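User: Quick one: structure for sequence A, then sequence B.

Assistant: Sequence A:
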Amino acid sequence: MDHGRLYEKRERLHRLLSGIPGDVLDKFDRAFEIEYTHNSTAIEGNTLTLIQTKAILEDGLSIGGKTLREIYEVTNHARAFSYIKECVAAGKPLDESIMKEIHARLMENIQVGGVYRNLEVRISGTSHKPPLPSEIYWQVKEFFAALPEKAELDSIESAVWTHAEFVRIHPFSDGNVTQRHSQKAA
């Protein structure tokens, strides 16, 4: 697959960014993190607006009329993203313990995180049926065994495979990057 134009744009972006002062880049990073958190939690069914997400993350404000779960989803997502960036900066490869830690951070104060689901789930709107709970452990092991080989693919293809395979396995009862409200116990 030829991603030449995408890589050209990435290189152009790096050249442009090298001329921008660090404090301005920090503001861009912070704005991205807020928008990323908002969009990621909205996919999961969170009803907080972008402005409300910003108020929670930047100002530490609570939002009236919203559930604690929605507020925790936003703060937890930001903390989990920060942890991912720390792992990347330290050169740590994605492994099962990091995956479980990310999930634990996402689910803090909501449910026990980092523990594989013990119930069947169905995802409405798709014909895909995630593996049975008894199959998850081995499928996750196979997933991580395949990661080094997939990492040698083009970076975009590797990222797509990693995301699609993780969502296909759907190892957790919640927080698998699918719509939380569409999951139902079988």
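Sequence B:
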Amino acid sequence: MPETLMPGSNPPSAVMLFAAGFGTRMGALTANTPKPLIPVAGRPLLDHALALTDGVPTRVVNAHYLADQVVSHLAGTDVQVSVEHPTILDTGGGLKHALPLLGPDPVFTLNTDAVWSGPNPLHLLREAWNPATMDALLLCVPLQNAIGRKGGGDFSLKNRHLSWQGDFVYTGAQIVKTDRLSTIDDPAFSLHRLWNAALDAGRFCGIPYPGTWCDVGHPEGIRLAEDMLART
């Protein structure tokens, strides 16, 4: 099982968990349930992700589709919810919308539709983060260790620098600086806007994940993730 995040010298103090999507690839499973609350191995996907964030002082989850269920699920916890209304804002817009809760410093971001087997991904990012040379640090897994992945990889990785297209899959975990968000006026936009700016500046970085990772963005991923966890 993934280890919990250990205290470090100067890690980001906030994490954004993306949980606002419609989950259309899940088909009927998300007709009445938001994807982050679909159970895998006895607990919701969102709770698998939150378990990785222990030790991060500020935790924020965004919500849009069936947002009331996400809000209700997190009631009584220290996790804040950034509700996107009336429209969904995509990853970049969602992160910008949540900045009043997250603060101005670099943040962890974590997708909630994946399950991990191996070291805590935020721990690995924290250890590798160098704000002097990086605007974004993505955790990527070799394609052969990306269980349930449909399609090829996202990036090439060489000497901790990323470029588009290759055999590494983005896991949905990163550290990213948020200052450039203030220069984007569109309410809804992808984090790719920040990534491409970082790439152009030579500050778009990545590290490989040494464990296994399962995409649970489609129904088959539930069984694959449960099988993966049963082997650990």
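Confidence is low (pLDDT under 50) at residues 1-9. Residues 220-230 form the longest helix (11 residues).

User: Thanks, that's what I needed.
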